[in-house]
Design a protein that fits this description.
Order of helices and strands: HHEHEHHEEHEHHEHHE
Shape: globular
Largest sheet: 7 strands, mixed
CATH class of one domain: Alpha Beta
Structural class: alpha/beta
Length: 302
Amino acid sequence: MAEPKLDKREVARAFGRAAASYDAHAALQREVLARLDERLDLMNIRPARILDAGCGTGLGLRLLQARYPAAERIGLDLALPMLQAARGRQHEAGLTGLVKRLLPGAARESHVCGDIERLPLTRSSIDLVWSSLALQWASEPEAAFRELHRVIAPGGLLLFATFGPDTLKELRQAFAQVDGGSHVSRFLDMHDLGDMLVHAGFQHPVMEMEMFTLTYADLKSLMRDLKGIGAHNAALDRARGMMGKSAWQKLEQAYEGYRKDGRLPASYEVIYGHAWADDKTRLEDGRQVIQFNIQRRKAGLR
């Protein structure tokens, strides 16, 4: 099982540049968020503290606010401009200092710039981790799952969506006809992700898959959408430099082979998963935590 190796600085730069344009190009991302939110209808959980891991511009935070208004929310993202956009959306939703003063019980929301593989959070401090279309940007997904397990409280829930290997398969195959280089990110399948959840310490993982197809008039429109959300190939072995005119024409010609009913398709394999944290009696290095109940008896003389 080959894990994708990513350049995290390039990931942060790409999403930082896309912060201003993200919402205008995020139709699929909004749909996936809505479907994640629907899944919470089936979960018996009332979290006091929630982590949105890879919160982007804060679209998911607003859904979590509506569902769990009393919960404290933490939005985490690798790109600082995304967090600034999320903070702006928080104020648009009315969570200003004035509202907090008028409503002392209003939940707190904070925004943290950090890496999902090295979370700046204490052990067992989160009741619900929600992550929508962010885990595919982890350089080592199993390390990310271990970190998420570390910060989730005993019995807490991880709910996520990520992309599977058939995502952008048309674009990947078209590029293969041009130069065979790595131009499209590689994604793990749901069986590998399920195994990683178990290895990280989660219990009762449930995995589902759904295919989406977006259509475009031309290849430029697809590439504009990808750039608009920051979906840039950040693989360490990616091709460097700008694509030349000749290579672009070859790519367009190759992609035309997928045109159907006058439109060019772009496939997205979306994997949904959820799993519960165990009782957290085992540390991340495998050591078992054993609790002792020591009773002291006072000796008396008769």
